[in-house]
Amino acid sequence: MYSGLELCLSARYRTKQARIRSEGIGVAGIISGYRQSLDVFNRNIRTMLITFVLFSVGNGIGQVINNLYFLSIGLDEVFIGNRVFVTNLCLGLAILPAGLLADRADKSFLLKLGNVSWALFTSGILVTRNETALLVLASLQGLTLALALAPEMPFLSENCPPEARTHLFSLNMMIFTGISSLGAIAGGYLPRLFSGLTGVPYESPDAYRFGIWVSVACFWLGAFQILRLKRGPDLSQNITARKAPLKLVSPFSVIAAVSANFGVVAFGAAMFVPFMNVILKTRFKIPAHVIGWLFTLESAAICLGSLIAPRIAEVRGKAKSAVLFQALSLPIMMVMAITPYPALFIVGFVLRSGLMNMANPLIDSFAMESIDPAERGTVTGLLGLVRNSLYALGGRLGGMWLAAQQHSVPILVSMACYGVAIFLFYILAAKQEGAIRSELGLSEEELAPDLNIPAGE
Fold this sequence. Notes:
- Helix content is 79%, strand content 0%.
- It has 457 residues and is an all-alpha fold.
């Protein structure tokens, strides 16, 4: 037997499902969902979205340029792997203490301090070519990035009503990938532009440095934008007396499921994703400006996937939808590992990115809605510790394999890691979510605590 409140929530959810079915998973329904969410975003959310735009441009440029710059100054894939390892190891070690701090301090202040410090150390790539100094800067980037990332998801969650969070996280993903695509296009052509203006070879270190200058400038503009943030709402006063009568999955199961998925996926992805521009250049001899366009195509696939993912999740559930999207990427990765054809590899590269990134905002939203608001910073730090520590190890292994010209091995190992991660997440979270949704007809958003968050400020 279920309580009257549970039955009431079940009736509300069935009404919502009837509206979803009437609108369908079409363009009108998707636009309607985002329009309703945009109406309730407050000033802090809008400021963060502008910051994401600026950071995304800089990230897109750096995604194409940075590793090629390192190769041009005489460093190799082993150094690139070590840099990934150092950055993510420091990020992983620091993010749990940063998360604990985020639950006890002003999150907006930590966001400002972390992002400005990170922009400062990111700029260091322009002042030295010494391998040791670059690795020290990478470690400082990891430490300060932890301070910026730990409060980010809790800050967004506490400034956004529960019913709009999935759309917010998906919109964040679309901004990051879509705007990064513009940066990737620029990153591919900036060395050629500098070459045309100065006469230096377009694959020279100086030409690549010009692109890095533009990338760093975007990071600083984003850091200055984030200084406009205001302190978020006081959750201790805004959470109503009503508590959720039932959780779709216990908090421990949520933490275990998301940690397993994020950690094992990160370990596998780090073996080849950070080196994708290197793989495209060394394995298939694709020039930098074409790589920029390929990253743009990848970003378009991620944007399209992120656009429709919240709508599918409303019907199937967040955890079950995330499992579906991730599982569909496995056969695609097999093709990427064994094909000798550049066109087939590129199609697989684009599809894999789209599917895996459709799942990420759903898992983020699922985790944040299942955790007590007062513990979100700590949980974010714990998830970051697992994800980034394993990402660091995966990046080191991937760099060594690629330095030995073993291009298929990291993709095959990554595919196996993805399979393990999907299985664990399904057993620990998605299976339970599906059973409870089927029996009660309850949604995660309606079971989350109500927050009296002012909209549109």
